[in-house]
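Batch manifest, entry 17 of 40.
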Amino acid sequence: YRRLPSLKHYVVVSQYQCSVEILSRSSDDTWTLSDASELTDALRLRTPSVSIPLAEVYRNIQFGDSHLHSS
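Output type: structure tokens
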């Protein structure tokens, strides 16, 4: 994926826990890792400018004994 010049973000969403990792390509072709692990966090991308609350990403998903409710 790092060799694809058009790829700006690589997002990994865990199916087992509330956890999202975002790899973002900088203008100098270096990659920066950011993560989010709370339902109050958001998945944020710079290009295009996007912000998605993790509560929406994980809406109606069950992890173990807890259930994430939809709003």
